[in-house]
Structure of DUF1907-domain-containing protein:
Amino acid sequence: MQTEKYTLSPPSLEELASALRAPLSSNFEHATVDVVQCADLRDAPFHLATEGLSGNERIADVGGQPNLFPTPRLDTIWSMKEIAKAMEMDYSKGSLIGAGAGPFHQVGRNCELVPNFSWEGGMENINNQSYIAQIAGGTGAPGVQKSPSLDCALMINLYGSSGNPGPVLKITARKRKGAEKSFTECIRKALNTAFGESRTVSLGGAFLVKSGRARYHIMPDFPPADDLPFSSAKQLNDWLTYHDFDGPVVCLSVLHSADPDKKMGLRMEHSHGFSATKADAGGHYHYDMDGHNEDIEYEGYFNVANFIYRIAKPEVTLERDLHD
C-alpha cells in the first residue's frame, strides 16, 4: 500500500486535559476531563474487542471521500489486516477501532462500518466485534449487525494500539448549553485552539451517547449509473439517509486538531456508532439534537497517537469534509 508516515510530538495527557476543561465546560453545563486508568472497554456498555487503548498508539487515514464523490470508486477495497501491517502494528498483539465504509462487495450493498477488532498470538487469531449499519432494500429501514469480514472500502479512519490498559483521557459531558452540537467537534476545535495549526494532536477512542438523542447518517446503496456522477456536495448529502436515535449508542472515533503541513488530506473527525441492544441504531455520528440538549450525556475514553499513516491517499483531496 502507498503509505506516508508522519511522526507526531503529542502533549502529555495532563496537558491535553488542561486544554480541554474550559472549552467543554463552556459548551456543557456539566463536564469533566481527567487522566484515569482506562476502564475495561470489553465490558458493557462499550463492548469493544480490546481492554484498553494503550501501547504503540497510532492512527491511519486510508482512502478518502474522493473515492465516493463525484463517482464511487468500487475498486477501492482493503483488508484491515493489511492496513494493520501498513501501520507497522505489532503482529503478536493489537487492536483497531474507528469509522469507515463497509464491505459492500460482501454485504451486497453499500454500508457504514464500525471497525472493532483485536488479535493476540498472531493476526490469525482475530476477535472481530465490528458492526455495519445499512439501509434495507425495499423497506428503507436502518439496521445494524455484525460485520461479516475484516474488509473495508472507499475510506476508513483507524486508531491502532496494543489494546493494553493504561492512562487515558476520560471525558464526560452533560446538558449542552453552547452552540457546538457535536461532542467530538467540541474536543477537536478546543485542541486546535490550544495547539494551533503547527502542532497536530491526534486522538482515538470510544465514547458513549449515554442518554438523549443524536443524529446519524447511513449511506444507502450506491445510486444507479444514470444518476452519477454526484454534481455537488448538496446532492451527495441529500442522497444520504438521516436518522435520530436515542442513547445508549457506542461511537468509535478518530480526530485531529490540524492537518500536518496541510498536505496529508486528512479527514479531521470521523465517528461511527452502534448499539448492542437496539437493532436499528447506529451509523455516522453527527451531533445531538436541539430540543434534546437538556437530556444529552456523553462518556468517552481517548488516547493520543504518536504516528499518522496516510494510506492510499487519493490523487485529489478535499478542502473540507463533504458531510460535517
Observations:
- The radius of gyration is 18 Å.
- Helices lie at 13-27, 80-86, 104-107, 183-195, 233-239.
